[in-house]
Amino acid sequence: MNTEQDQTRTPPPPDPSAAAADARPAWVSGDLLDQWRAWVHRDQSRHEPDAPGPVTALAPWDLTPIAPVPACTPEDVESAALAARTAQRAWARTPLARRAGTVLAFHDLLLERQDQVLDLIQWETGKARYHAWQEVAQVAAIARHYARRTARYLAPRRVRGMVPGLTKVREVRVPKGVVGIISPWNYPLYLGVGDVLPALLAGNAVVSKADSQAALTLLWTRALLDEAGLPADLWQIVVGDGPVVGPAVVDTADYVCFTGSTATGRTVAERAARRLVGASLELGGKNPLIVREDADIAAAATGTVVAAFANTGQMCIHIERVYVHEKVYDTFREHLVRATRALRPGRSYDYTADLGPLVSPAQLAAVSAHVEDARAKGATVLAGGRARPDIGPLFYEPTILEGVSTDMDACASETFGPVLALYPYASDDQALDLANQGTYGLSASVWSKDTRKATRMARLIRTGSVNINDGAAAAAGSIEAGMGGTGDSGMGRRHGAEGIRKYTQSQTIAVQRLMPLGPSPKQPVESFVARTNSQLSLLRRLGAR
Prior knowledge:
The chain contains 19 helices and 16 strands.
């Protein structure tokens, strides 16, 4: 890959399979497309003659059209929510064991037919097959985890009543009703389905707004859940222009789960708040990685490459800022550049490519603009820094920048592409100050042989997750632990207990026995108050809680 330090170096050849690769998987027939598209909710009784035409995304490998998918209107969303709400009433009464059985059946079907959805993910997003497989593995883990742990997460809880022995109180969890989920294109299976499964297990219905770039992946999954036994109306899918369909989802849901940009997340939160509806938001990030002086340099460099360039840098938790102790900076830089140059960009339905293209011409332009702005203002390109049209129209080399300053767009703004900036630091305190710069707080990484010191540092980083001796996957893949951000990176958590409890409401059920609370009809109020005051004082002296 071309660098400013070595302009004569020959770039790696394109993937030999690229020229022959056809973006559309050979097994995808017109009949199958029709079956999947039938899961897009359309209210035929009210559909306007001037309704929007179908949406057709472009395949990132070669910019050829993917199959057209029907576009929905706000009236379609309203109809979908009504159908979902009707189905939810019966689903909430369905025993949890049966709901879990449906999700476990889906788990098995997903693993059995994963090659199909891997092809669809690659067709719609262009990502390398290994990165598509990571979505399958993550969704399978989520399905298994919540199917087995929901009973514990949502178990009723006995609490002390007002009058011990006479007041029996239990807190129970009840479903919200209809959950609206708006998911992005970059992880269409994981982010599109990983939030749906716990919502369903908690007894809710779901209306999902599929991203138009990757709608087929979600529709394929909906068909698979139908085969696993999910009631037909319980999970509704709508497709269409975000500013048209998205607000309608928020306006008809009892809870909203949104993954996307910070700017859109603010709009979603404001709209939900006007209806007094809760929302969880996973938004942008400018995630830092710290390499301490005592780190295993080779391992840290390898981990940085994975965390920065996986999914071609198009993931919210990927690393964009790398801070390296000045005593090991040169050695780390050498390892990092070598590992980055070794990556194999390509497009094929196998595991030969390390990374795919960017998803759209707009994304390519945004990444190129960040790099060119930094280059023009004095940054050095250590690796990458250019498009690769010889491989495909949207390929961009994984890029390392050095000498990035605060006046450059790549310094603080999220690039969301295969670009990282490298900085030296002198002390742990300085590294923490640098890591905490900016308004994002989604994920971070610390590399050190002294995990105790690294853990102490981790607690001082303002972020939702910190990975020690891993770039990003250790925390995100630990399904039993919450995942989410702070600041401009959002609010709420997916995964773990909060990842399912957020789709429920706490309800208190109090049963009073033997006698009502308050003074009896024949007892003076003054006498009741005096006696109760004495009891309160006694409880204080006894240390009662």
